[in-house]
Write a structure and sequence with these properties.
Protein name: NCS2 family permease
Keywords: Membrane, Transmembrane, Transmembrane helix, Transport
Subcellular location: Endomembrane system
Helix content: 55-70%
GO molecular function, one term: purine nucleobase transmembrane transporter activity
Family: Belongs to the nucleobase:cation symporter-2 (NCS2) (TC 2.A.40) family. Azg-like subfamily.
Largest sheet: 2 strands, antiparallel
Oligomer: single chain
Length: 441
Amino acid sequence: MDKYFLLSERGATVKNEIYAGIITFLAMSYILAVNPAILGSIDGIDKGAIFTATALSSAIATFIMGAFSKYPIMLAPGMSMNGFFKAILLGGGLSLLWNEALLAIFLSGCIYLVLSLTPARKVMIEAIPEDLKLGIAVGLGLFVSFLGFKNAGIIVSNPIILVSLGDVYNPQVFIALCSIFIAIACLVRDMKLATVIAFISSIILSLLSDHFLGSDLISLPTAIFSAPPSLAPTFGAIFDLSQFSLPKLSDLLFLVIIFFIVDFFDGLSTIIGVGRDAGIIGKDGKVPNAKSALVADAGGTMIGAVLGTTSITAYSESAVASSIGAKTGLSAITVAVLFLIAMFLFPVFSIFTVAIVSPALVIIGIYMMKNLAGIQWHKKESAIPVFFIMVFSLLTFSPANGMAMGFISYCFVMLVQGDGKKVHPIIYALALLFITYLALS
């Protein structure tokens, strides 16, 4: 074990790796409640099946990452992408059914996998400007936060001014606000389990409200353990093309591009960030086992789509593990085992509603705002596209529209200021695809 996981070489111990894995699992276990709550609220998708798909795909992908890339990096369905997935299906902008949209995620994972196995990944990494990558992350963060506020009832629609503040006297809204500020307090005090503590406080406050105010916010489970819910409603649903038609092809291809770009660069940034923090990536910037790490990320997305959930990605909560000394894949394998055990705890995680998990979305948005600091705002070719990404992602309730306007405006700015030759052909191709998408939609 010592030789395989490079424990002595990296200055790690089995005890600390397992401890770091347990703490990190607790920090990211909210996904077992949030993902089923979000995706399970879409017509035709079974909440229990999503729970099992979430736990199983996270376990498999995290095990692959730990066993083969030997990184202390954990994977699970991406928080921004599940909200985006729900929005595109319920927003009416696309004609795809939920299983057809999952097929787009599977195909994006296939492209990701091919790039990970070939030198083409370097071309893709270098083609998209760093500021655009950061802007996409910020746009997703704004969207996810807005979705959280909306689901909690903190922000509601208004026919005159579009949106306004919800009824703060409503127990659901008040509890959500309290939970958000509790999580913020944990963040400020550098507590590792901010989201989990927010969940617990939300449950306690909901139970108190139900008892003293007569509200009906939460239903306690009749049992703690149970057999994992069946995967039958979602397993392999992506291969059901009985209702797919040629007019849907443009929507499918567009989603493939969107999910690939977000998943590829989100996973890459987390792998590099955690790798540096753990001391695996040296000052020379070389990423050991980069191919294995990216393959685990891409393979996880493909596995997740087949099981029935959205894109699997490297979790930023992996930084919790590296911050307490995790340096090898043993901590990731610990998390994988805990995800498998969690499959038998569905009654506990099923009590979470969309409103209860909403504070987690807001906190994820806050995490993603840190990318603003790395953007070169003094450069017009950075400031203008990022501005468009942020504004359109939020105000059109679609990160896809934000990304489209970002790429289009970047090419436009570069051409106008005489730097068109500096733009990679891939960016021009993507901009044309985005123009076609906006025209067709």
